[in-house]
Design goal:
Layout (H helix, E strand, L loop, with lengths): L12 H4 L20 H6 L10 E5 L6 H12 L2 E6 L5 H18 L3 E6 L6 H5 L2 H6 L2 E7 L3 H4 L2 H5 L1 E5 L5 H13 L9 E2 L1 H11 L3 H19 L8 E2 L1 H7 L12 H15 L3 H13 L4 H16 L5 H16 L5 H13 L5 H14 L61 H15 L2
Parallel strand pairs: 1-4, 1-5, 2-3, 3-4, 6-7
Helix pairs in contact: 9-10, 9-11, 10-11, 10-12, 11-12, 13-14, 13-15, 14-17, 15-16, 15-17, 16-17
Family: Belongs to the AAA ATPase family. RarA/MGS1/WRNIP1 subfamily.
Pfam families: AAA, AAA_assoc_2, MgsA_C
InterPro entries: AAA+_ATPase, AAA_assoc_2, AAA_ATPase_RarA/MGS1/WRNIP1, ATPase_AAA_core, DNA_pol3_clamp-load_cplx_C, MgsA_C, P-loop_NTPase
């Protein structure tokens, strides 16, 4: 077979290189120690420890499907795979009945691998419960989202939750090198330069599938350029990698945990006044295709929550950035987003207004409120004055200083303070003025 033909009409490299046993699994050493639940599941002679259902939670490309298939091959158990994208309640019930029949008639144990369980509705997950609870199946469910929010409590309590970690650079290096030489992979038809290996690992970002997909594409470019002269095997260079993969495909699911983690890091970096980290997370969201309106909304919230009156201009800039993004769209919208991010990250910070409204709402929710003082009540409707509404109210503009001493809070909350300015930025001046105002008001 020619080197060019090696890349034609084949199963993808990432699928061909899936381990056939736990010994071939790259990474996840914390889950593969002797006696661990995963190892016990793969042992056909294991008793109770090997019959418990598990939920595998981790980023894409960390080996969830690989572990499930390796367990099935090693244990000799019957293996059934369902995808939450295509399977319904009827499919689940059919699998459960078949598993029960296999157990009762032939003594066969069934592993049910359910990919993307977070996409299952509550009703679909409920259909899994009888089989899991009664041991008709050993469920191995995979998810990229936090199971605490995406898996129903009864199913979660009947399963072990195992967390997978992104593969390390060393894990990915071993995986890539093995794929180059393994007969199931590229079978030694190309060689990999150190620079190309480093580029593949960098682009993979801990994702084995991405690393192997990029390797296969890069090898295809190298083979195509070399021709089929039967000479030395072509070398895959970092230039081949760059041609095959024109951008780093960030591990970022707009509906998953990575979405929430990155936006959280973005806001916390702004709050912490680290403008460089703020720009990094902004770039990650932009490159991953995050909705720029979502980013703009978060900037407006940050300007109000974390900066407030320490720099009143921050909110105006954030709102202007949101308007600009809506007006000009992307990719140019990245520029006002970056401008607002830089301004907010370097601005003086105060959460005093944020704390004030939270404290006031807490009082209201707890029932700590009273009647509006009579002199503040509306006196414009017929009969209001007979009730004493508005009586004794002093118009502040009639005072030379624009402020008069009178009660504004209900009797039950007299003297209660919610707003406590910080000594940062413009709010330092607000604080000094506020002390004068409170003295005049008699607070």
């Amino acid at each position: 077979m020619s080197t060019g033909a090696l890349f034609q009409g084949q199963t993808p490299l990432a699928v061909r290189m899936r381990p056939t046993s736990l010994d071939e699994v790259a990474g996840q050493a914390h889950l593969l120690r002797a006696g661990s639940p995963i190892v016990a599941l793969a042992d056909p002679d294991a008793q109770a420890p090997g019959t418990v259902s598990v939920i595998l939670w981790g980023p894409p490309g960390t080996g969830k499907t690989t572990l499930a298939q390796a367990i099935a091959r090693s244990s000799g158990r019957r293996f059934v795979e369902l995808s939450a994208i295509t399977a319904g309640v009827k499919d689940v019930r059919e699998v459960m009945q078949e598993a029960l029949d296999q157990r009762d008639l032939y003594g066969h144990s069934t592993i049910l691998f359910l990919d993307e369980i977070h996409r299952f509705t509550k009703a679909q997950q409920d259909a899994l419960l009888p089989g899991v609870e009664n041991g008709w199946v050993i469920l191995i469910a995979a998810t990229t989202e936090n199971p605490s929010f995406s898996v129903i409590s009864p199913l979660l309590s009947r399963s072990l939750l195992l967390t997978l970690q992104p593969l390390t650079d060393d894990d990915l290096e071993r995986l890539v090198d093995r794929a180059v030489e393994d007969p199931r992979g590229l079978a030694g038809t190309v060689e990999l330069t150190p620079e190309a290996r480093a580029a593949l690992i960098r682009l993979a970002s801990g994702d084995a599938r991405r690393a192997l997909t990029a390797l296969e594409a890069s090898a295809g470019v190298a083979v195509s350029e070399s021709g089929e002269d039967g000479g030395e095997r072509p070398a895959v260079t970092d230039e081949h990698v760059a041609q095959a993969v024109d951008r780093a495909l960030l591990r970022y699911d707009r509906q998953g945990d990575e979405h929430y983690d990155v936006i959280s890091a973005f806001i916390k970096s702004i709050r912490g006044s680290d403008v460089d980290a703020s720009m990094h997370y902004l770039a990650r969201m932009i490159e991953a295709g995050e909705d720029p309106r979502f980013i703009a909304r978060r900037l407006v919230i940050s300007a109000s929550e974390d900066i407030g009156l320490a720099d009143p201009q921050a909110l105006q800039i954030a709102v202007a950035a949101a308007d600009a993004v809506a007006f000009i769209g992307m990719p140019e919208g990245r520029i006002p987003l970056a401008e607002a991010t830089a301004y907010l990250a370097t601005a003086a910070k105060s959460n005093a207004a944020y704390n004030a409204i939270n404290a006031a709402i807490a009082d209201v929710k707890a029932g700590r409120f009273g009647r509006v003082p009579l002199h503040l009540r509306d006196a414009h409707y017929a009969g209001a004055k007979r009730l004493g509404h508005g009586k004794g109210y002093v118009y502040p503009h009639d005072s030379e200083v624009g402020v008069v001493a009178q009660q504004y809070l209900p009797d039950e909350l007299r003297g209660r303070r919610y707003y406590d300015p910080k000594p940062h930025g413009a709010e330092r001046e607000v604080g000094a003025r506020l002390e004068k105002l409170r003295r005049i008001l008699g607070e």
